[in-house]
């Protein structure tokens, strides 16, 4: 495909750290969703970080590098990063800590994104207790659910800290498509070649 | 040919004093010249509870795209925040509205909320007792300018929203959105 037939967006950054009250260890499963017009050129769209433990009362650091490149003809369906943070409780069982989502930054530059996390609350107090007892707390069956807008009214959630993401975005040829992303002046356009 | 404006927002959450749980019903209004390309114009968030003294988090993603020939009728986001009181009844927490940002870039928008005050103290008391506090019949009312003098309101916290806007071809229509210089125009193709 000729480079002028589409614009390209490069994302480089990292899942820096996570801060969840009362949580002393955590790892993250991430995935990136995008629309139909988008094609991934490079990078892993899903993966796992390491299990991080905090030092002396420090936030948990992953420093997990992310590098993704996409091309598209259409700004619709911009890539969206979805994270699911898990950890081990006092009895060594894998429990959910929180979910979060954020769109990757849409204009060139360096961005610090704070993803506020939430996790589903059990339907009843009895379920919450047995979930805590057996280490099987309420989770979402579909990992992409935190990134969707429809069906949100069906869930009750509790706040669960935040994930810090640092991301640098670089765009190429977006002005040929008439997009003004706010980071640069639009040059005199001749339209897509 | 029309210009396009798209907005990717994350409705982070409310900050309402004394409110330990909340969900939001949102809708987006726009003028007649605007056509929605993508995104849901109305919906519901989840019911969020604060963690250990943490703020309430919705983290609700919203991607909207419109096209138009006319900047009039720019899309406006209207939220109605509800919650459950101590007796488990659904009560109104506040209403708010904000226009989607009109120029490209990343914006942090604080939507200040208000809710209607009952006409008399007796009504306020019975409303609190039965869990039927004063509400607006029309969800779009907070976004309207006419008829506001008919209501008395009380402040009710705020909703934090992060929005990233991207525009396309606006300079062809001569619009300067403040984020970029207007290039030499050849008019709409």
Brief sketch in words of this structure:
The structure is a homodimer. With 193 residues, chain A is mainly beta.
What does this entry look like structurally?
Two copies of one chain form a homodimer. The first copy, chain A, has one helix at residues 125-134; strands at residues 7-19, 25-33, 39-42, 46-48, 52-53, 60-72, 80-88, 94-103, 109-120, 156-172, 179-180. Chain A has 193 residues and is mainly β. The first copy, chain A, has one domain (3-189): Immunoglobulin-like (Sandwich), CATH 2.60.40.150. In chain A, the strands form two sheets. A five-stranded antiparallel beta sheet of chain A has the order 3-6-1-10-9, with no helix packed on it. In chain A, strands 2, 4, 5, 7 and 8 form a five-stranded antiparallel beta sheet that branches. In chain A, a hairpin with a 5-residue loop joins β7 (80-88) and β8. The radius of gyration of chain A is 19 Å and the shape is elongated. At the A-B interface, β8, β9, β10 and β11 of A face β1, β5, β6 and β10 of B.
Which terms summarize this structure?
homodimer; 193 residues; mainly beta; Immunoglobulin-like; five-stranded antiparallel beta sheet; 5% helix; elongated; disordered C terminus; cytoskeleton (chain A)
Helices, strands, pairings?
2 copies of one chain form a homodimer.
Chain A: E1 7-19, E2 25-33, E3 39-42, E4 46-48, E5 52-53, E6 60-72, E7 80-88, E8 94-103, E9 109-120, H1 125-134, E10 156-172, E11 179-180
Antiparallel strand pairs in A: 1-6, 1-10, 2-4, 2-5, 2-7, 3-6, 7-8, 9-10
């Amino acid at each position: 495909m000729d480079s002028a037939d589409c614009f390209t967006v490069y994302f480089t950054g990292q899942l820096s750290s996570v801060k969840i009250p009362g949580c002393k260890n955590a790892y993250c499963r991430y995935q990136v969703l995008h629309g139909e017009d988008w094609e991934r050129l490079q990078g892993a769209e899903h993966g796992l970080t390491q299990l991080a433990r905090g030092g002396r009362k420090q936030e948990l650091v992953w420093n997990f590098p992310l590098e993704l490149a996409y091309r598209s003809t259409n700004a619709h369906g911009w890539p969206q990063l979805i994270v699911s943070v898990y950890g081990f409780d006092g009895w060594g069982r894998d429990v959910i800590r929180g979910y979060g989502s954020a769109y990757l930054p849409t204009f060139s530059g360096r961005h610090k994104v704070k993803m506020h996390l939430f996790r589903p609350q059990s339907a009843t107090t009895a379920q919450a207790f047995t979930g805590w007892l057996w280490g099987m707390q309420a989770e979402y069956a579909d990992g992409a659910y935190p990134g969707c807008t429809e069906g949100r009214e069906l869930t009750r959630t509790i706040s669960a800290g935040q994930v810090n993401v640092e991301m640098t975005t670089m765009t190429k040829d977006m002005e040929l498509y008439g997009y003004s992303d706010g980071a640069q002046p639009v040059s005199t356009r001749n339209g897509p070649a």
